Amino acid sequence: KAGVTQTPRYLIKTRGQQVTLSCSPISGHRSVSWYQQTPGQGLQFLFEYFSETQRNKGNFPGRFSGRQFSNSRSEMNVSTLELGDSALYLCASSFIPSDMGDTQYFGPGTRLTVL
Amino acid sequence: KQEVTQIPAALSVPEGENLVLNCSFTDSAIYNLQWFRQDPGKGLTSLLLIQSSQREQTSGRLNASLDKSSGRSTLYIAASQPGDSATYLCATVRSLAGGGADGLTFGKGTHLIIQP
């Protein structure tokens, strides 16, 4: 069974640009969550989607947005990039939402560098 | 706001030793707690998930315990091996007033090195 896949794996952008990251969950999984990992702040929750609906959102500015498609694939968008957005963005999937006690499986991440 | 703390931040032990990693959290209203490992440059691998109603979970040489009332969890690794070298993270999913959850809240991790 294929794991969680994220594309692209590496991305370099400049300040002010926008970026879209993609996540394909494990087959059959309907819940997708996104996390940002930086050396200073560690891993921080961005948002979670289940059946195309955003269930909850972390404490990030509105420049960070996401969506989920009917096939459970998810995209995350960051507009007006700032230097501080440089991070590893991780996607995780599970059968059911995180509050229902399911194990979350993580992808390898997308390394975003903002110059 | 949930805060998760992991002690120690780094640990280096000889191969074969048993060891304990500690995790504490400030809000006991959690749905579950998960332990992960992260290898350099890679994503997270789930090790164990403990539901809020459970006290412990075991998988092979790993045993995780949960004490919700005191806000603590431990990960016990038996007979450590060099392949266990990684960063170990614990994370909780917290229930919110009015329903729902706030996603996984992670500690900063324990960087573990097992010396051959």
Helix/strand order of chain A, N-terminal first: EEEEEEEEEEE
Largest sheet, strands/sense/barrel of chain A: 7 strands, mixed
What share of residues of chain A is helical? Answer: under 10%
Mean pLDDT of chain B: 93
Order of helices and strands of chain B: EEEEEEEEEEE
Major beta sheet of chain B, specifics?
6 strands, mixed
Describe the fold and architecture:
Chain A is mostly beta strands and 115 residues long. Chain A is 0% helix and 52% strand. Chain A has strands spanning 5-7, 10-13, 19-24, 31-38, 42-50, 53-57, 64-68, 74-78, 87-94, 105-106, 110-114. In chain A, strands 2, 4, 5, 6, 9, 10 and 11 form a 7-stranded mixed sheet that branches. A 4-stranded antiparallel sheet of chain A has the order 1-3-8-7, with no helix packed on it. In chain A, a hairpin with a 3-residue loop joins strand 4 and strand 5. Chain A is globular. Chain B is mainly beta and 116 residues long. Chain B is 0% helix and 61% strand. Chain B has strands at residues 4-7, 10-14, 19-25, 30-38, 44-51, 56-59, 62-67, 72-77, 86-95, 101-106, 110-115. In chain B, strands 2, 4, 5, 9, 10 and 11 form a 6-stranded mixed sheet that branches. In chain B, strands 1-3-8-7-6 form a 5-stranded antiparallel sheet, with no helix packed on it. Chain B is elongated, with a radius of gyration of 14 Å. The chains are: A mainly beta (115), B mainly beta (116). The interface between A and B is medium-sized, with 28 and 26 residues.
